[in-house]
Amino acid sequence: MNLGGLTLREALRRTWVKINEHEIMTRAAAITFYAIAALVPFLALVFLLAAYLLPWLTHGQAIDPVQPLGMLLPAEAAEMLATELQNIRQRPSTGLLSFGTIALLWLNSSLFVAVMDSMNRIMGVEETRPYWKQRLIAVVMTLAEAVILIAVLASTLLWPQILGWLKLDVMTAFLVTAIHAFTVFVMVLISFAAAMYFAPDADQRWEWITPGSLLGALVLVCVSFLFRFYVQRWGNYGATYGSLAGVVVLTSWMWLCSVELLAVAEFNKVIEDASPFGKDYGQRRESAGTRARAVRGTSDAPRSSRPRSTFWLPAFFQARADRRRDQKTDDKTAGD
After folding, report:
1. Which region among 158-167, 222-231, 283-292 has the lowest average model confidence (pLDDT)?
2. Residue 231's domain spans which residues?
3. CA distances from 104 to 36, 85, 111, 116, 184 (A)
4. In 124-169, which residue ranges form alpha helices assigned H by DSSP?
5. How many domains are there within the chain?
6. Sign of torsion, CA 287 2 257 25?
7. Fewer Cβ within 10 Å of end Cβ, the chain: N or C?
8. Sorting pLDDT into bands at 50, 70 and 90, what band is 243?
């Protein structure tokens, strides 16, 4: 994988330097605070959307959305979420466009505003978007993440029933299950890509897969399972915190996820800084400046005509893309 001309070791070293320089640990703590404050409103929003979406997806079958979370989170955190969901279920239902729903969206948008602030720090830019636009983007991100979460939970919970309905043989069922797992992984990648594309106040290029999003999705799953294993085996939070053990465990997990999100954004920025087509630190938009002139044939090319970034591709496909680009440049030069 091409990392902007950097080795993996050098890219990770620079990422660690940037993590310390931009105070990522402290910013992750701020995001965690907003995440905890928005936890119940977000669960209420997810439950409200699920009430409208899941009957169509599940054909009326009853499902428990806490089941997959129990496989990913420690028992204390999963139990706390289950309790909150049960409390939400017992409340009077509200309409999809009610005042309560608007209030839920407003509360949840504060979390993504904190993410935007951290992403701007990573990119080295200041927030210049109007307040209403910033909040609107945060609300859209809230809805998008909620829909992705519902889709992942529903597909995971209903997969055994789907396999039973398809009546496939063992080998075919294994292949279909692998495709399903890959699809869920892609949805997580899209979640990372959306956060890193819409959050910063900078002109970003949409990339379905980047080294940061790919690494982030893998690390998110690994960190969650390892943290769950640690809490179940060695972490005796109940003896120390008592009834607050669930809150402490969930807060710790959210902090790890926040650190991981910002760290992979730093990883992407390090690669972009090393790439001749990337933006400099503090630069909002790409330009055919001195860095672009280092690449043959692009000194005066406008942004739309310059080759798209393909730094996320495996080395074989990256080499093919580079050869084709060089061939087109040579043909154009010969024609002129």
Report:
1. 283-292
2. 8-286
3. 14, 15, 12, 19, 26
4. 131-166
5. 1
6. negative
7. C
8. low
